[in-house]
Design goal:
The complex is a heterodimer. Chain A is mainly alpha-helical. Helices cover about 55% and strands about 5% of the residues of chain A. In chain A, helix 8 crosses helix 12 (about 200-210). Chain B is built from nine helices and nine strands. The termini of chain B are far apart. The chains are: A mainly alpha, B alpha+beta.
Chain lengths: ~300, ~280
């Protein structure tokens, strides 16, 4: 294991491109989506209008953030049909690919917090405040409560996620300071602080993850040599252990936690190709087979 | 015994941890909530797009997607930046910079996915974004007796939302003032008058209704309207007022004042006759 450079062994074993495959695809997705939104204001190519709160693609496809719409509903607004249709499309999509795919493949703030996490590893910053990873669900509840009590989208006044994306497209203003705040918070105060502890947007999309179809599976977990590289790069490392080390307790290889973002970085950095993307049903049959195989091996 | 105390300890720890998280989040929420409440007061110069409801309702309905901004052909609308005194990310415009051009197809309302801009608004003349008020009656050029008339000329609802009302010019004693008067039943609050005002600081400004308008107490009844509605006086009938007028004269209540009985006006049709009139003599 090389704590400052997790994934080095994977590069040696699989080559640089394969050891960064999902990372590159993810960055392509993140920048690609931003580019689609920016093509209009920058070049006049109006493929997508709006921002992640609600958008219109090619003047036909409405997409709406179900989280912000739910806040609006709780604030007492009778939401119009277009937004409900848009939110339904988005919800179905994330139910298929995993709710927190929003976090790792779409959200622009992920670029900032990933950068903070990378720098934290490179500078070998160890210290971190203590905060429960469940805090985000409290914050999520709080945002709904605020909408209910104030009758406004109170959270959207300060939400760094929507503020950053809107800012990139419509003008950032002073929002850069808030984004810098998130970066410094992640870098110096709390490891994986924003995305892994506080962000209610991620918490909400995590709830969509619970029944979602596409999941990461530690399909070949018996090959794991405990190099810990996956734990080092994972933005939610607590989700790995049950799937990777749970064979003996009869836990399936699929990472079932709603906190897993399906970023696929664990797949990249594993020199032994333990992980791969699978469907959630992968667990139904595989553990049985794996246990049987393990027995054969040990006998 | 040891296990029981360990369980007790872990329960204690669980309760403390939960309380810690809950109080931290609650404090955070208090901050956000107070900030959100403060942000509800829209500055008077910021005008919401057509079809937006009351400010409190609008802040619960608008999801800050900016689709209205994108479909505004005149770049009138913009989304509020975090440092601006308008709720972050919500659309507004400032009339003095770029006013609403009152597009007939109202693209901003059509673009709104949530209905924060009311789809029932199909006639832009029915929009009520605010109300123009001729605030500065000391510096307005028309009040000074000049014929600026620019606010009146640019008004998309000329002669309905703004009319020019002639008044006597007391200063010169012989000219008319043409006073621009805004009529709230027609003014949409588009802000073209404020934008066009030729003064360095506009004398006419679009204000939100709450600032621009007074409101009668709900118990208040105006006598003459009640009389009209009832078809007659609701109290003792008025005694007809009589003037003790000089012989052969009558009084025109409509504005001509005292005049000779039967005559339309004390002045001849040709104004030159009046001017050429010899002192003491009557035509």
């Amino acid at each position: 294991m090389s704590p400052l450079h997790p994934g080095r062994e994977a590069v040696l074993a699989k080559g640089w491109w394969r050891a960064h495959k999902w990372l590159l695809l993810r960055r392509t997705s993140q920048f690609g989506i931003l580019a689609l939104f920016l093509a209009g204001p920058w070049f006049g190519w109006w493929i997508v209008k709006g921002n992640l709160a609600s958008s219109l693609t090619l003047d036909v496809l409405p997409l709406t953030d179900p989280y912000v719409l739910l806040q609006s509903f709780l604030a007492g607004h009778a939401v119009a049909a277009t937004a409900i249709l848009g939110a339904a499309i988005v919800t179905v999509f994330y139910l298929l690919v995993g709710g927190r795919v929003y976090c790792s493949w779409v959200c622009p703030l992920n670029l900032v917090t990933d950068a903070a996490a990378w720098l934290r590893r490179r500078l070998n910053i160890k210290g971190s405040a203590r905060m429960s990873r469940q805090t985000r669900y409290w914050v999520l509840g709080l945002t709904f409560l605020l909408a209910l009590l104030t009758g406004t989208l109170a959270w959207e006044m300060v939400n760094p996620v929507s503020m950053f994306h809107r800012g990139l497209i419509f003008g950032l203003g002073f929002a850069w300071a808030i984004i810098l705040g998130v970066f410094l918070f992640d870098l110096f105060v709390l490891r994986q602080g924003w995305c892994g502890h506080v962000c209610p947007v991620g918490a909400f999309y995590g709830l969509l993850t619970v029944p979602s179809l596409v999941r990461v599976s530690a399909a070949q977990r018996e090959k794991c040599d405990d190099c810990m590289d996956c734990f080092a790069v994972c933005p939610e490392p607590q989700v790995i252990r049950p799937a990777l080390k749970g064979a003996e307790q009869g836990i399936g290889p699929v990472i079932r936690s709603p906190q897993c973002t399906n970023c696929g970085r664990c797949i990249d950095v594993c020199a032994l190709d333990v992980f791969r993307f699978a469907t959630r049903f992968h667990s139904a049959t595989k553990p049985h087979i794996r246990v049987a195989q393990n027995k054969e091996v040990s006998s | 015994m040891a296990r029981a105390s360990a369980r007790k300890l872990s329960r204690r720890r669980f309760l403390v941890d939960t309380a810690r998280t809950a109080s931290g989040v609650a404090l955070f929420g208090l901050g956000v909530g107070l900030y959100a409440k403060r942000s509800e007061s829209l500055p008077a110069t910021a005008i919401r797009p057509p079809g937006a409801g009351a400010e409190g309702d609008f802040l619960g309905a608008c999801i800050r997607c900016g689709l209205c901004v994108r479909d505004c052909p005149y770049d009138t609308l913009k989304l509020a930046l975090p440092e601006e005194p308008v709720a972050t990310g919500t659309p507004f415009f400032e009339a003095r910079k770029i006013p609403c051009e009152m597009c007939e197809d109202i693209p901003c309302v059509k673009a709104c996915p949530t209905g924060a801009l009311d789809k029932n608004l199909t006639d832009i003349d029915q929009a009520r974004m605010g109300l123009a008020v001729l605030i500065d009656q000391e510096n307005c050029l028309n009040f000074l007796g000049l014929r600026c008339d620019v606010c009146y000329r640019v008004c998309p609802l000329i002669d309905k939302a703004i009319t020019l009302e002639p008044r006597h010019n007391v200063r010169s004693g012989m000219h008319a003032l043409f006073i621009p008067v805004v009529h709230s039943e027609a003014c949409t609050g588009c802000g073209k008058c404020e934008h066009a005002c030729v003064l360095d600081q506009a004398a006419i400004k679009v204000l939100p209704d709450r600032l621009a308008k007074g409101e009668l107490g709900r118990h208040y009844r105006v006598g003459w309207k009640e009389k009209q509605r009832a078809g007659g006086s609701l109290v003792t009938p008025d005694v007809e007022h009589r003037y003790n007028l000089p012989e052969g004269m009558e009084y025109d209540y409509e504005g001509q004042g005292l005049k000779r009985k039967g005559a339309d006006t004390p002045f001849p049709d040709n104004p030159l006759d009046s001017l050429n009139r010899k002192s003491g003599g009557r035509p």
